[in-house]
Design a protein that fits this description.
Purple Acid Phosphatase, chain A, domain 2; 7-stranded mixed sheet; 10 helices
Length: 319
């Protein structure tokens, strides 16, 4: 499971996220928003534990707004491990999701009845639309998660109503979903870009939608200027430099800036003694490099990496 995690740390996220919550509580933003893939392969216990980790946000008056990713609802990969043994564990249903993350849905101005989509009036000037763009089974799954996603007919009707209402109230809109609105990479886009992206772009461009935020591809990228609606794709917090973004809003302005989490400043003295937290970002780079080397050997260099060290090193840096 670790070897095929595509460069993500799956061993130490509990402490890394607890440290990040300390930073968020100290910064006191209006909200923390996560665009999917919150859990370990849709294991219910993983979602429950995440709810426990984020509990201090509510006490600090900070809204936690989440939407599921393609690894969060009914995934046949949900497992627990004991020694060399693995076992299937309880998966997350849509009802479970709403129950575990009820703090998000309690803030909803409106919910789309057929999905996990909802809207939030952050303040009188800004409306947040959080769309469930995933395609998942309607029951316990024994298969791998679906990579591709779409906004279905029911969600599209609801979305249109929300946009009309925002325009009527003279609100600007920020739009969040897991799948990408555009092809941010000329090679890796099949299944990552929304299946019906063209229809959604056309709809959003008719209203005051200032920016779209998504994830899924795990690579930070921004498309703006020449596209109808700007889009920010966030990198994966469990990889490399633990990236996250800060959005600053006023009544008539919007800005976004990416940051790397300065985890050392939010660990206790005892936690810093725990391996690998003495230099966690170096550990994350090592995890990524190991995964990258494995993928290069298996899929690209076909075992010839020993004969092509310069090519392998170049590809590793590019990735």
């Amino acid at each position: 499971m670790r070897q095929t995690s595509a460069g993500k740390d799956i061993a130490y996220q509990d402490l890394a996220l607890r440290a990040f919550v300390r930073k968020v509580v100290r910064a006191k933003p209006a909200a923390l928003i996560i665009t999917g893939d919150l859990t370990f392969n849709r294991a219910r216990r993983s979602a429950e534990r995440l709810g426990e980790i984020f509990a201090p946000l509510k006490d600090a008056g900070i809204a936690l707004l989440v939407i599921p990713g393609n690894h969060d609802i009914y995934d046949g990969w949900a497992r627990s491990f004991s020694g060399s043994e693995e076992r299937r564990v309880a998966q997350i249903s849509p009802a479970d999701w709403k129950e575990i993350f009820s703090a998000s849905y309690d803030l909803a101005a409106s919910q789309e009845p057929g999905s996990l989509s909802y809207s939030v009036n952050l303040n009188p000037h800004w409306r947040l639309l959080l769309l469930d763009s995933n395609l998942y089974s309607s029951q316990f799954s024994y298969t791998h998660p679906m990579t591709s996603g779409a906004i279905d007919d029911g969600e599209r009707r609801w979305l249109s109503q929300e946009l009309v209402e925002a325009k009527r109230l003279r609100q600007d809109v920020l739009f969040f979903m897991h799948h990408n609105l555009y092809s941010h990479n000329s090679v890796v886009h099949d299944g990552f870009k929304l299946n019906n992206a063209g229809e959604i772009v056309q709809l959003l461009s008719q209203y005051p939608v200032r920016c779209v935020f998504s994830g899924h591809i795990h690579a930070q990228h921004i498309m703006s200027g020449w596209v109808p609606v700007p889009e920010v794709v966030s990198s994966c917090f469990a990889e490399s430099d633990q990236g996250y973004g800060i959005v600053e809003l006023t009544a008539n302005s919007f800005s976004y800036r990416r940051h790397a989490f300065d985890i050392d400043n939010f660990l206790t003295a005892e936690e810093k003694k725990l391996p690998p937290f003495a230099d966690f970002h170096a550990y994350l780079k090592e995890v990524f490099d190991r995964s990258n080397n494995l993928l290069l050997r298996q899929h690209l260099l076909k075992g010839a990496a020993k004969d092509l060290p310069e090519a392998a090193e170049m590809l590793k840096k590019m990735h």
